[in-house]
Amino acid sequence: MADTDAITLLIDLATRTADSRLRDLAGALSREQSETERLRLLTDYRANYRKRLEIAQADGISRQLLASYRQFIERLDGAIAQQGLVIEHRAADSARAREDLSKAERHRKSLETVHERRALAKRLITERREQKQHDEFALRSNAQGGGFPH
Fold first, then answer.
1. Residue 126 domain-assigned?
2. Does residue 140 fall inside a structural domain?
3. Is residue 106 assigned to a domain?
4. Looking at CB atoms within 10 Å, which of 25, 99, 126, 148 has the fewest?
């Protein structure tokens, strides 16, 4: 009985760990998605700013204003590149969280399998014991003459 209680406790702890790892993964995926959205916003802003530059160039702008536009676009390009690195880190975090969840789930499932195998073994022992008792009872009944004639 103590063995069953111990394995049940271990399964409970493994389940809690897996649940925690699932929450970690959800958080990591949320952060990755948020950073990806930020990259999309930066990229869209850059595209809109480039359109404004094209319109300004078509209307004629000074060299100084053109230089300012280009300088700002370069800064946006730098921010986009930096955001790409942030997303790579977030994706790596998500991959680690996914692997941690997978390990926790495998551990929980292995404990459950051990528990099921032990329960099956106990059940088989009980069934064999009951069958042996039934057979012994039948033999005693037959020996005492209470059995069925052949």
1. no
2. no
3. yes
4. 148
Side chain identity at 136, as an amino acid letter? E
User: Is 79 a member of any domain?
Assistant: yes
Domain count, the chain: 1
Count of residues in the chain: 150
Residue numbers of the domain that contains 47: 2-110
Nearest CA to 35 among 74, 80, 72?
80
Note the pLDDT tens digit of each residue in 74-106.
999 999 999 999 999 999 999 999 999 999 999
Q: Residue 10 corresponds to which tokens in the numbers above?
A: 């271990």
26: amino acid identity, one letter: A
Q: Which of 83, 101, 90 has the alpha carbon at shortest distance from 17?
A: 101
Q: Tens of pLDDT along 17-53?
A: 999 999 999 999 999 999 999 999 999 999 999 999 9
Task: Give whole-number Cα distances, 35 to 42, 71, 77, 86, 102, in Å.
Answer: 10, 24, 16, 7, 24
pTM of the model: 0.74
Closest residue by Cα to residue 47 from 77, 86, 71: 77
**Of all residues in the chain, what percent carry a pLDDT higher than 70?**
93
Distance CA 125, CA 122 (A): 5
52: domain CATH number is 1.10.287.1700
